[in-house]
Design a protein that fits this description.
The chain is mainly beta. The protein is built from two helices and five strands, in the order αβββαββ. The chain starts with 5 loop residues before the first helix and ends with a strand.
Amino acid sequence: MSDSSPEDSVGKFELHVSEDDTDVAYLRLPSHPGTSPCKMSKSVRLRDLIGDYDGPDVVLDFDLRGILVGIEILA
């Protein structure tokens, strides 16, 4: 990871892999405000959208305006 401040990461894709659990990753999209923690309006599991989905657990995070800001992947 880079040593950039949160303000430097606004508008960029940024992948974070958990140091405690390497089976967990979070992709910040360019629309993410870059602050931690970000206020999420809604989180939706991909399994809930696609009934026969068979893959890693994927969670889509939306901000208060309904814009997709991040994707969590749990392998």
